[in-house]
Amino acid sequence: MKVLNVVGARPNFVKMAPLVREMDRRSGQIESLLVHTGQHYDERMAGSFFRDLGLRRPEIDLGIGSGSHTEQVARIMLAFEPVLKSYRPDWLVVVGDVNSTLACALVGARVGVRIAHVEAGLRSGDRSMPEEINRLLTDQLADLLLTPSADADQNLRREGIGPERIVRVGNVMIDSLFEQLAAATHSRIREELKLEPGGYAVLTIHRPVNVDDPSRLAQLLRLCGEIADRLPLVLPLHPRTRERIAQGGAALHPGIRTIEPLPYPDFLRLWSGARLVCTDSGGLQEETSALGIPCLTLRETTERPVTIERGSNRLVGTDRRRVLDAVDAVLAEPWRSGEVSPPTPTIPLWDGRAAGRIVDSLLAHYIV
Ligand code: UD1
Question: Which residues lie closer than 8 Å to 47 by C-beta, 6 or more apart?
Fold first, then answer.
């Protein structure tokens, strides 16, 4: 069976690494090609992840780089089409919800290649998010929808997708998380930043809705300043956010410590020792839930409701009172380190073995 795997942006590398390794382990049955669109391209957003997560160098890098959503999707489609046509895989595997996911799925559908979507079925219900459009369309195009949780299956059924196309495999991002727990203990990031376990909070923000509008960003940063009045806040700056803060020129609260985006093991060491995580990221809602670290999601919606029902995530939006009340509630609870080994899976099939189930499913649905 020939498989073409696509990665493009930071969260894709985390999902694809265990999957490619599993395919390599079964090289008697599977030949695979790894294509990187180059949506994320620099050392901090891409390079270190390949090395740290043991993801082999891509055989093909399309070198797309930054641009508007339309430009990115269009450029990826143009560059990807000849690659797909010449390799002609039995499966095209796309992961997550970034622009690279949709662009390559669109080409796959036009060329007539069977498409498998890993992390299918997630819905925030908010079509102003580029990721929601990418999710909806990719799922409509895919032949095999590999879902992380029961809510995702239900979303797909509601949209008229036949049950024979849906397979619940669990969360492959958690495979990377569990694999990297040991490596993360070697990280000295907390010592470098002089942070005591349980004595600080981690903040990440990069969603266009939170950072692209200058007045909204300034308001959010003021609110984060009020959190920093309660405990030190570390903010690894996503390039989009760094750019917007520089453009806005707002002064940050002295209790907010900004740092560069971190390699995976350092970031894991940082957030797993935090008292609290505040974020608008999708992946971090899942990762914190897997280790039981309290997470406050600074958005009005989430496509990952299972992290609220069964994990440690709370959806708090960006309303000042609501956020601060939630912070105070977490600080009133006793702190429990997430760094327990081995971790106990809190959500069904988020057990570190999703990659094996994904590959089994590709083989089972393989049409010669
Ligand atoms: C993308 C994804 C988002 C994901 C996020 C993770 C889409 C629609 N969005 O958003 O779902 O959560 O990645 O990071 O696909 N840049 C660099 N170095 C890089 C890559 C980008 O400096 O290696 C800068 C560029 O200036 C660029 C900006 O970051 O303009 C944003 O990058 P882009 O790929 O457009 O989207 P993200 O906001 O990262």
Answer: none
Is the pLDDT assigned to residue 248 strictly greater than 90?
A: no
Say whether pTM exceeds 0.85: yes
Beta strands in the chain (DSSP E): 2-7, 31-36, 60-61, 91-95, 115-118, 144-147, 166-168, 201-204, 233-236, 256-259, 276-279, 295-297, 313-315
Q: Residue 10 Cα, ligand 1 centroid: separation in angstroms?
A: 8
On the question of pLDDT at 367 being above 90, the answer is no
Q: Catalytic: which of 206, 238, 253, 365?
A: 206
Interval 137-172: pLDDT, tens: 999 999 999 999 999 999 999 999 999 999 999 999
Question: Could you tell me the distance, in angstroms and rounded to a whole number, from the CA of residue 5 to the centre of ligand 1?
Answer: 20
* Same-fold call for 2-179+349-364 versus 186-331: yes
CATH of domain 2-179+349-364: 3.40.50.2000
Which superfamily does 186-331 belong to? Glycogen Phosphorylase B; (3.40.50.2000)
For the CA of 44, the nearest atom of ligand 1:
23
Q: Rounded distance, CA 88 to CA 93, Å? A: 13
Would strands 91-95 and 115-118 be described as parallel, antiparallel, or unpaired?
A: parallel
Taking the C-alpha atoms of residue 210 and residue 57, their distance in angstroms, rounded to an integer, is: 33
The tens digit of pLDDT for each residue in 46-105 reads 999 999 999 999 999 999 999 999 999 999 999 999 999 999 999 999 999 999 999 999
Listed by start position, the domains of the chain span: 2-179+349-364, 186-331
- Distance of alpha carbon 3 from alpha carbon 114, whole angstroms: 10
